[in-house]
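Hello,

I think I submitted the magnesium ion job twice by accident. Can you confirm which output corresponds to this input? Input:
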Amino acid sequence: MSKARELTEIGQLREQLREAQETLEAIRRGEVDALVVNGPQGDQVYTLRGADYSARMLLQEMSEGAATLIPDGSILYCNKRFADMVRLPHEKVIGVPAREFVAPADRLEYDALIRRGQNHLAKAELLFCASDGTPVPTYCSVNAISIGDEPCLCMVVTDLAEQKRNEEVIAAARLASSILEQAAEIIVVCDPAGTIIQASREADEFWGKSVLGQSFGEVFPLAGIDASDLQDTADLLRGCLSGKPIRGVGVNFRRASGGNVYMLMSAGPLYDKAGSAVGCVVTLSDISELKQAEEALRESEQKSREQAQMLEQQLIASGRLVSLGEITASMAHEFNNPLGIIMGFVEEMQSTMPSDAADFQTLKIIDEEAKRCQKIIQGLMEFARPTPVTAQTTDVAALITKTLKMIDARLYKQKVGLTEALAPHLPPIHADAQQLEQVLVNLYLNALDAMLGGGHLTVSAQLDGNDDFSKEVVISVADTGHGVPREDLAKIFQPFFTARKKAGMGLGLSICERIIKNHGGKIEVESEQGQGTLFRIRLPVKSLSQ
Ligand SMILES: Nc1ncnc2c1ncn2[C@@H]1O[C@H](COP(=O)(O)OP(=O)(O)OP(=O)(O)O)[C@@H](O)[C@H]1O
Ligand SMILES: [Mg+2]
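Support: Only one job matched these inputs. Its output is below.
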């Protein structure tokens, strides 16, 4: 090639480059009116000659994305919104096949839309995929237009992301309100000041009118509460807002229409995105009927017990049965009098006899044995005596501390260590404190008898049970003594069973069992020979209705 020709070609190429740069610049400024596309039949020019300025402004500013496509699907023109939607600068969108902005899974649907759009207005929901991979749900409509004489397609794309989000929010709100509408329980949402801002229909029914805007304490005035560390409604909500949820606490509320209603209450805090408490949600289930059923059961148990006693009395009265108690009591009484006389004489003889006299030791033995007989008689009388429960509000922890003081000296003498593990805030129980004292002392003395060579005594008390119906105070008395042989375990609660033939009467545990049963409780034993023994007493917690 001659040098002159090369120079001419370089000049032409420079000219083409300048033109290309100018075109790019015009596209960047949104001034482009035409696009030259290389095709098999040579360059083809697509222009927007008919578009006037105001129409273009409208296109630029509209909230839908808009683009014109030439027959091969490339974008001839697009507005700012379209470029924003696919997250590319305006000039980078021009000339790109629109299909590339459609998510691969939706491309066949896109092809079908384009085909339909060539004949008449066609619409479809399509998932676009922005240049950075962000999925953009859209509603896309395609229509055939002519630009000059050239057939083109006009595409309008509506971003559905916001609408979808709104739909989700609306659906969530609808779900929440239908939950509140349908819930068979009382559900209320309170703001931090305790004002009800949302409520289920049941809440309105409880109050007799709408509870919205009312204070929680006003709608649900407290008549009583089972959890001893909670005082009032304000306390409940305060605890809840500070992050302490309430689970299944028995609460007695006063009804506006009169009377009380017993409910199981749960509450938990609500947090905003920043993690601060913005209120709490409280659920209340009416369990008055359950409570009444429990009361009825307890009453019927009591009645059957009384009926059994009455029947026994009738049998006794009819002369067909003489109760063990009656025989024991009369025998004890008959023995007591002569024994008293014997002891009186012995005491008198001892007082007039010098301590080195030959018979003094004999008299001493008579005195000791007579005293032992008296103790046996006392035990028998105690066993035979009916022991009605005189129940009062009793603090178990205080009772344990008091009874442990009584065995201080023996613990010290026998070198027995003591652990007192009492759970804080134990609820008071409904019990006969004197009888419980008797039970505890019996168990301590048995434990001490089993640890004559020293050991450790652990007395603990705690609350057990998940709901208010099954809540019990559990007292454990555990020792590290010689234990009970396996074959004796079933017998130790039987009257007169004793392994301490000389010292025991075998009545202690049977009296304990009777007392605990009369309190509606249970006594259990676990023992490992050579390791120790544990007695566990379960006593029902005093219920609110008592
Ligand atoms: N902590 C214990 N460790 C080992 N054995 C025990 C313990 N407590 C009870 N026993 C066994 O159970 C038996 C029955 O106990 P219970 O208290 O009824 O009668 P006792 O202690 O023998 O006589 P008492 O009538 O004076 O109480 C005891 O003799 C003993 O064998
Ligand atoms: Mg005993």
